Automatic annotation (TrEMBL):
Sequence ranges of the TPR repeats: 324-357
Top-level taxon of origin: Bacteria
Keyword Ribosomal protein: no
SMART domains: TPR (SM00028)
Name by which UniProt lists this protein: Glycosyltransferase 2-like domain-containing protein
Keywords from the named record: TPR repeat
Ranges of residues in domain Glycosyltransferase 2-like: 5-101
A UniProt-annotated Pfam family: Glycos_transf_2
InterPro entries named in the record: Glyco_trans_2-like (IPR001173), Nucleotide-diphossugar_trans (IPR029044), TPR-like_helical_dom_sf (IPR011990), TPR_rpt (IPR019734)
Length: 638
């Protein structure tokens, strides 16, 4: 019978080593563990599994330690796993038969299977990629590379067969959001060291471009991505498409390339990889960054479509980790188009991928909040589990902030009765207009902990209660800026003046008040902004209102800025475009036509206005106004 050795290198892997060893212990003849200096219980746990433990002095060279492990193995075949990897339990029975089947064929030296990268143990799928972790034990097969190491046979690629995920899957939990940044920083430093020594391997440029991109050094990322594209042009590797993604994303961040140059790069990428969802996704985000929302939507939908039927075994696919955000972005553009039904569908898809996505939840509720409460509850129960305390807490917290009273009461009762939570939720009380009851709670928490979030909520409760005298109950640690904003709101002091120093606090309070206060209270608060802050600051206030779907208030603030401005045409054109967009969202097409016309008159030349004109034309019921939109597009496009 063919002998199989499992090899694992470790350092402080006590949290995950058992799962890795458990996954292979019944199908291998020996387990080799090479420890590089653990200070936790890793070695003790490994020994409990009957492994052969060796100790190796770490020298910043992953290939060296892996090759040391290979030298200790006695089997005919090697299964080489990292401690944070494990073979799927339902597939482990297939490993030995696969190896036995190819063992006699000397032309095959390795088995390539799918690696699925998870967000922590049993977490959501982040990405998948082909991986060669099973290969013959041979002195001719060795790892190379201090980092991102890979095997070669006499310095040439190893011949391998592909085994699909129905037969074999390896799960990897190590690249979670909490660990990936540090690992990339470590790997980039090792690659830089090799580069200084004149060592350039097949994927050196790609990995450096990725490292610099993750560090926000976009110029370097672009330089190495371009080198990687040339270097990998003839390779058929799992990551050969990735430099294009790094290049497009870096260009999007820097905004130093012309639209023609950037679009040419997108087209080149799609010419080479037309069926890869990530390329479509990168193009979508570039289009969105330059205001081409309709083109962005088309590319996003194409990304979703190509991912649904993606079956390229030989290439990675990282679309999974950003699918929730892609669905959310699709939903947002549909909302911009006033297509609520389509937006609802994609908010649901986003939440199905990531149920704690607060932005997607807020978008969903904004669409369904005026439906019958029983219908809203029924709908939410298809997305969230009543038996899951985390789900119920998420619903209570977010429904509290979004003021969905009857629905909130339903879930709060579950939290209280099913999970024995007797503590009153402060935000819930605010949602139920019981600010008199909640202010003492927030005030006490703020006095005790000095927390800025509690300070904000205490001040919001004070404003909603319309009891300025309560400000003294917050004691001396209340920000002076808070006292000034409260005095301005209630006009309790003569000659009160707010300055730019108070503006960040004003914005934070506004974000809470938009949801928790009444429309009259919000209008009163916005009047403070008009009285005391600059045109630029008021534009920021209008943007906040726009983001929260308060289109009437946003329009009023944009018009205030237009009347107040002494700015040049560029600023006026922006303000008129935003005012027109508010009217469009409110389906006031006559107002939209008027303000869009003014924006174009003052030289507005950003792409987004032409999408707004087209959408307005499609939705406007009045032929005379439709003709205005049509004429504006024809006159000003290009």
């Amino acid at each position: 019978m063919t002998k199989i050795s499992a090899c694992i290198i470790t350092k402080n892997e006590a949290m995950c080593i058992s799962r890795c060893l458990q996954s292979v212990k019944d199908i291998v003849d020996e387990i080799i563990v090479v420890d590089t200096g653990s200070t936790d219980a890793t070695v003790t746990i490994a020994e409990q599994f009957g492994t052969k433990v060796f100790h190796y002095s770490w020298g910043n060279d992953f290939a060296a330690v892996r090759n040391y492990a290979l030298d200790q193995a006695k089997g005919d075949w090697i299964i080489f796993l990292d401690a944070d990897e494990y073979i799927a339990a339902e597939r482990i029975k297939n490993v030995r038969p696969i190896i036995e089947k190819v063992h006699g064929n000397r032309k095959i030296d390795a088995v390539r299977c799918q690696m699925k990268n998870l967000e922590g143990v049993n977490g959501s799928l982040r990405s998948s990629n082909p991986s060669m972790r099973i290969f013959r034990s041979s002195k001719a097969i060795r790892y190379i590379g201090k980092v991102h190491e890979y095997i070669l046979k006499r310095e040439k690629p190893v011949s391998a067969i592909n085994v699909d995920s129905q037969m074999l899957v390896i799960y990897h939990t190590g690249y979670s959001k909490t660990t990936i940044t540090e690992k990339i920083r470590r790997n980039t430093a090792l690659l830089e060291e090799e580069l200084k020594q004149g060592i350039v391997r097949r994927l050196t440029y790609y990995y450096l471009s990725d490292g610099y991109f993750q560090a926000g050094e976009y110029e370097k990322a672009i330089d190495f991505a371009q080198k990687a594209i040339k270097d990998m042009a003839q390779m058929n590797r799992d990551c050969d498409y990735k430099p294009y993604g790094i290049l497009i994303e870096s260009i999007t961040h820097l905004k130093t390339f012309s639209e023609q140059e950037a679009i040419a790069i997108c087209n080149e990428a799609l010419g080479r990889f037309p069926h890869h969802p990530e390329i479509w996704l990168h193009q979508a985000y570039y289009y969105r960054s330059i205001g081409w929302y309709e083109k962005s939507l088309t590319s996003l939908l194409k990304a979703v479509e190509t991912n649904a039927c993606y079956n390229d075994f030989n290439r990675s696919n990282d679309f999974y980790q950003c699918s929730s955000m892609a669905y959310f972005d699709i939903a947002q553009i549909y909302e911009m188009k006033n297509q609520s039904a389509q937006a609802l569908d994609y908010y649901v898809k986003a939440l199905q991928q990531e149920k704690s996505n607060q932005a997607a939840f807020g978008g969903l509720i904004s669409i369904i909040r005026n439906q019958e409460p029983a219908h809203v509850i029924y709908f939410l129960n298809t997305l969230y589990e009543i038996a899951d305390e985390r789900d119920i807490r998420f619903l209570v917290e977010n429904l509290s902030r979004l003021k969905v009273k009857i629905v909130l009461d339903y879930y709060h009762k579950i939290l209280r009765d099913k999970f024995d939570d007797k503590q009153l939720n402060g935000l819930m009380l605010l949602s139920n207009c019981k600010s008199d009851e909640v202010f003492p709670i927030f005030a006490e928490l703020f006095r005790k902990h000095g927390n800025y979030g509690m300070e904000l909520l205490a001040v919001i409760a004070l404003l909603i209660s319309e009891k300025p005298q309560w400000v003294d109950l917050l004691e001396a640690n209340l920000q002076h800026s808070c006292r000034k904003v409260v005095a301005a709101y209630f006009q309790t002091e003569q000659d009160i003046q707010l300055s730019a120093d108070e503006f960040p606090l004003f914005c934070d309070l506004l974000r809470e008040l938009v949801y928790l206060g009444s429309s009259k209270q919000t209008e009163t608060f916005l009047q403070i902004g008009k009285c005391f802050f600059s045109e630029k600051a008021c534009t920021k206030i209008a943007t906040i209102l726009l983001e929260h779907g308060s289109f009437f208030c946003a329009l009023d603030m944009y018009l205030h800025c237009i009347n107040k401005t002494s700015s040049e045409a560029k600023q006026l054109s922006d303000l008129y475009c935003d005012a027109g967009y508010c009217c469009y969202r409110l389906k006031d097409f006559a107002g939209a036509a008027s303000y869009f016309s003014q924006a174009l008159k003052f030289g507005f030349n950003q792409n987004r206005i032409f999408d707004f004109l087209e959408w307005s034309y499609q939705q406007c019921p009045e032929e005379a106004i439709k003709e205005k939109f049509k004429m504006m597009k024809a006159l000003h496009r290009n």
